[in-house]
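Reminder to self: tokens first, then the designed residues, so the page reads top to bottom the way the pipeline ran.
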């Protein structure tokens, strides 16, 4: 092996190492300074299934609603961009969806009930007598 090649390779590895360290520091700064990157959730891994089962079934604080533990989904089933959505925003979204669902259901029930009342031919003849000649054809 050529000594010159070895020193070139070593210099390249040192440059890559410095570059990676710089990128890691930039990422740390970005995460610590951005308020959206702080989230009230964590993934914890255990060495044994027994340790994970004990943690998942144990109450962690005196108030059981402060720190909730549950089994994590598979990593490939998680949409990681949604992890940064604040809890307040999620609550507001749930409220908006609930209200929209109620109004859509309520306003669709009235026309559907009216159409269902006309579903039989006698109902149509009573509601719209001018269609009697068309119905009897």
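Designed residues (137 positions):
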């Amino acid at each position: 092996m050529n000594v010159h090649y070895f020193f070139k390779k070593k210099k390249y590895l040192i440059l890559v190492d410095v570059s990676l360290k710089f990128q890691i520091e930039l990422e740390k700064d970005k995460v610590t300074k951005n308020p959206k990157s702080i989230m009230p959730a964590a993934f914890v891994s255990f060495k044994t299934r027994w340790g994970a089962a004990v943690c998942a079934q144990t109450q962690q604080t005196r108030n059981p609603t402060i720190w909730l533990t549950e089994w994590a989904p598979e990593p490939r089933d998680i949409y990681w961009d949604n992890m940064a959505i604040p809890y307040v925003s999620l609550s507001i979204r749930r409220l908006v969806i609930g209200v929209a669902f109620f109004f859509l259901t309520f306003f669709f029930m009235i026309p559907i009930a009216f159409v269902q009342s006309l579903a039989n031919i006698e109902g149509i003849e009573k509601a719209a007598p001018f269609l009697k000649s068309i119905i009897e054809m």
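The chain has five helices and no strands.
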